[in-house]
Amino acid sequence: MEEKDKDIFEHTTKFNTGIRLYMFQTGSIKTKVKFIKMNQGEEPYEIPVPWFLIKHPQGDVIIDGGMPIEAALDKHKHWGSVVEAYDPVMKASEWCRDQVKTVNTNPEDVKNVIQTHLHLDHSGAIGHFPNATHITQRIEYDYAFNPDWFSQPAYIKEDFDKPNIKWKFLQGKKTDYYDVYGDGVIKIIFTPGHTPGHQSVLINLPKTGHMLLTGDACYTGDHWCDRCLPGLVASASDAADSVAKLRKIARETNAKVVWGHDPVTWLDWNKAPMFYYD
Fold first, then answer.
1. Can you tell me whether residue 175 is helix, strand or coil?
2. What is the CATH number of domain 3-268?
3. Which of 182, 193, 161 is nearest to 260 (CA)?
4. Is 263 buried (19+), middle (13-18) or exposed (0-12) by CB count in 10 A?
5. Which residues are 48's β-sheet partners?
6. Is the Cα dihedral 257, 262, 268, 273 positive or negative?
7. Order of strands, sheet of 186-190, starting from the edge strand that comes earlier in the sequence
8. Where are the domains of the chain?
9. Which positions ≥6 away from 40 have C-beta within 8 Å?
10. CA-wise closest residue to 47 among 201, 274, 230
11. pLDDT above 50: residue 190
12. pLDDT at 4 > cutoff 90
């Protein structure tokens, strides 16, 4: 293990009180198996669209934000032909800006929005939290404006090309394991493959311990176990390497692992607003 990586396992965190992880969902997406598990079947398949809120004394943090409000108001206008393959099922009340209020967070309280990547089902928070810094990888931001042809439908420019957004750009391996508040609670891990600038999040909670949010670096348990690739990848080899990296981190931190869109295991997690992990 490289010296810079040892900090993720050896750093002793002096926890503040009141740190909580809330798991939310902005509806679901109706699709087919082959679009989630590469080359595997035409059967209908419905996946959850999770997002997360971390309450922290230095400012609340959103991870992604799920689908944008436009997916509930007029999905055909906003997503266009994408709906033929990925059909969003979302109520307006499930939008992240409204849901945060159910756990006594005001939009003004959110200090950071971590974007695992900028795909259309992860962009619901962008530009809707006035005091937030949006943290993404520089390569992801640049790629979103000029993606390869096979990835282009997954990026909707109107979701992220907005004025007056404060961005913080990470730099791939140079900033790997970026510690958001410098206290060991929230660390961002560079996990390219699904997109060139995908990132996952490792959270260290006072009671629960480590929780690893893979994002779309690993959609489902099949990806985790090397039984298939995600339905959409920018680089198959990077995607495989990133899953191997995440498995190693999970072993060494004894982390509970939350996969990005697994419809079976998602049912077992405690959901907001009633429940949380601390």
1. helix
2. 3.60.15.10
3. 193
4. middle
5. 28
6. positive
7. 178-179, 186-190, 199-205, 209-215, 256-259
8. 3-268
9. 33, 34, 228
10. 230
11. yes
12. no
